[in-house]
Amino acid sequence: MKLDAIDLRILDVIQRDGRITKLALAEQVGLSPTPCWMRLRKLEKAGVIVGYHAAIAVRRLAPVASVMMEVTLGNHRQADFDRFERAIMAIPEITACWSLGGGVDYILKIMTSDIDAYQRLVDSLLDRQLGIDRYFTYIVTKTVKEETVLPLASLIGPGQPT
Predict the structure, then answer these.
(1) Which residues pair with 53 in a beta bridge?
(2) Whether the predicted pLDDT of 162 surpasses 50
(3) Measured between alpha carbons, how far is 149 from 28 in angstroms, rounded to an integer?
(4) Which pLDDT tens digit goes with each residue over 57-76?
(5) What value, to the nearest 5°, has the Cα angle with vertex 103 and ends 102 and 107?
């Protein structure tokens, strides 16, 4: 799908404010409401926009432990990766999982109520025999930057294929 400058402006605005009104969005991107709404719907139907979410400041609600975990599997058959990934998808405390190339197979972002809860989660993963050969834990001591707004203009310029 090719995006033009207006599409990129629409995406930039709605990722900063997913609750913006149709009229305000149209004003900010320089279109009349109907064409703006049609473009927004086109982006949604194409799967470019996959949802609208609220950013929650969870630490204002309760203390939490944020942990990054490196995982290396013992075997590297597709069935091993599939089994591990299916299990990870079902665990809500694992808020992100990236498959990597190189010496580590996965990095997981895990949020639990405390370190004990994290360790119980790890123990349950190991008990399930998901093929984890080794893992390393990194406790997040301070969030320096955690951006949810993507720098679309520098990632894809207007008119470039996506």
Answers:
(1) none
(2) no
(3) 17
(4) 898 999 999 999 999 999 99
(5) 90
